[in-house]
Amino acid sequence: AQSVTQLDSHVSVSEGTPVLLRCNYSSSYSPSLFWYVQHPNKGLQLLLKYTSAATLVKGINGFEAEFKKSETSFHLTKPSAHMSDAAEYFCVVSDGAGSQGNLIFGKGTKLSVKP
Amino acid sequence: GAVVSQHPSRVICKSGTSVKIECRSLDFQATTMFWYRQFPKQSLMLMATSNEGSKATYEQGVEKDKFLINHASLTLSTLTVTSAHPEDSSFYICSARVTRNQETQYFGPGTRLLVL
Fold first, then answer.
1. Taking a contact as any Cβ pair under 8 Å apart, which residues of chain A between 3 and 22 contact chain B?
2. Which one-letter DSSP state was computed for residue A28?
3. Residues B10, B31: contact at Cβ < 8 Å?
4. Which of A106, B1, B34, B82 has a CA between 20 and 30 Å from the CA of residue B63?
5. Distance CA A36, CA A93 (A)
6. Radius of gyration (Cα) for chain A, nearest Å?
């Protein structure tokens, strides 16, 4: 079965410093992986997705994630945090091969950004 | 980009009443819609998957008679919580997928249900 583990429930950084949100996955085949962001009172927004193309995936708002098969990881990074990045971030894996799967969500990491 | 709306954004109801939540894809046709439930400080749990014009597929442990899902058109799916109880209080989120060949789901803003 497919699953994702977000290693930190809460991450706090200062504005202008790098962001690292960690995610490890478990999958019996080549997975499709996603990062979504959830701002208060807004819908989940797709940041980026990995679907077996380039292992370094660039997303919106300066975020990127690197798929590392040997480490079964898909950590989300950003070189410099902005106040507007404060939100809940979810690492997600598709539970089916190709495009037919449902999404399995991690428990989320709350990112706080200090001035 | 693809926009999904939900209505209402929040609802408070008495125990025993039924509540209907609407999910609409505003600028695209959604062949498949999903309903999730999110408890405080927890992840999203898939409740059911609905394809337009057919019966919804419920995840294990989700009562289909309790959570009625209708996907009558390519732009609208509804979730009705029947005979709601306080334990049904939660944040309900819908999402929509354009076609079966696309993995990306577009999420609505969610509906917060409080059952007194």
1. 9
2. S
3. no
4. A106
5. 11
6. 13
pLDDT digits (tens, 9 = 90+) for A32-49: 899 999 988 778 899 999
Place of tokens 């200062």: A14
- CB contact under 8 Å between B102 and A99, yes or no, is yes
Q: Report d(CA B60, CA A92) in Å as an integer.
A: 20
Cα separation, B81 vs B83, whole angstroms: 7
Least confident segment among A39-43, B3-7, B94-98 = A39-43
Phi-psi region of A20 (alpha: psi -120 to 50; beta: other; left: phi over 0): beta
Residues within 8 A of B (CB atoms), A 30-49 only: 32, 34, 36, 41-46, 49
Interchain contact, A100 vs B100, CB within 8 Å: yes
**Interface contact B9, partner A, CB < 8 A:** yes
The DSSP result for B46-87, as a single string, is EEEEEETTS--EEPTT--TTTEEEEEEETTEEEEEE-S--GG
Q: Which chain A residues are within 8 Å of B2, Cβ to Cβ? A: none
Q: Contact A18/A75 with Cβ under 8 angstroms? A: no
What is residue A43's three-state secondary structure? coil
Cis ω for the linkage preceding B8 (within 30 of 0): yes
What local confidence, expressed as pLDDT, does residue B62 receive? 94
Two structure tokens written together for B32: 């498949």
Distance from CA of A85 to the nearest CA of B (A): 18
Q: Which amino acid is located at B115 in the chain?
A: V
